[in-house]
Amino acid sequence: MKAVVLILLASGACVASEQAHHWSYSGATAPARWATLEPDFGTCGNGKTQSPIDIHPAAVHDHHGSHLQFAYQPAPLHIVDNGHTIQVNYPPGSHITVGDERYELVQLHFHHPSEEKIDGQGSDMVAHLVHKNAAGKLAVVAVLLNTGDPNAFLGTLWANLPKQKEHENAPAGVTIDVGELLPGDRSYYSFTGSLTTPPCTEGVRWFVLRNASRLSPGQLETFAARYPMDARPVQPLNGREIASDN
Fold it and tell me: In terms of residue numbers, what domain contains 172?
């Protein structure tokens, strides 16, 4: 998930990080080298609860995960091509509730192919919905995406993509509702993990929805034309337990 490329200011504005292009998904700055690129990227190499992971349902230990509730609202579209992915910045007001903890939706972005795997099987893409609570702790909901019927939510995003990389677009009168991206069955796997991009900060609460949403082959091709591969490989589980809500 993205935390380095754009710094979200209290005003809602965003600025490019000076470290935005010091890492990539291939070549000399690929994931295997991230820990060596900057002093504060060390956790990418020595962290013990890194993301993404390969989830093996047969190994799930806890079948009583916290109840996850979604409360998303329509919002004006603010879409950014940040040089690593397509990101949508979300204004205050939309949130999830986990038990008695509330996390506000801050932004969502995409990876191709999916970073998460379930029983060794990846998806065509994944959307990471990034949330933050009052204490600044992060929670990410991962929505897997596989090819099938067209996705109306993605149709709106792709129709308003910035013309160039490292540009943004906030078209007047265009609104979105990220709730439209969620599958009907919102059961999930949860675990403690990290950011999936540098600095790979740990202590992130992850919720991977078990059921995928759909996008058309053409919608997949539109994203892949800009970002043929922007996924970190799966990381060791290191004894972490995975919970499920059923």
Answer: 6-244
Distances in Å between the Cα of 12 and the Cα atoms of 70, 78, 87, 140, 173 are: 22, 10, 14, 19, 18
- Residue 41: phi and psi, rounded to 5, are -95, 5
For 57-65, what is the mean pLDDT? 76
Domain count, the chain: 1
Q: Is residue 127 part of a domain?
A: yes
Domain membership flag for residue 18: yes
Q: What's 43's DSSP letter? A: H
Distance (Å, whole) CA 173 – CA 76: 7
**Residue 31, domain CATH:** 3.10.200.10
Nearest to 44 by CA among 224, 201, 243, 237: 201
pLDDT tens digit sequence for 64-89: 667 899 999 999 999 999 999 999 99
Assigned domain for 1 exists: no
Name the residue among 206, 96, 224 with its Cα closest to residue 158: 224
Band (pLDDT 50/70/90 cuts) for residue 11 is very low
Angle, CA 11 vertex, CA 161 and CA 90 arms, to 5°: 40
The gap between the terminal CA atoms of the chain, to the nearest Å, is 26
CB 100 within 8 Å of CB 205:
no
> How many angstroms separate the CA atoms of 197 and 231, rounded?
9
Secondary structure (H, E, C), 142-210: EEEEEECCCCHHHHHHHHCCCCCCCEEECCCCCEECHHHHCCCCCCEEEEEEECCCCCCCEEEEEEEEC
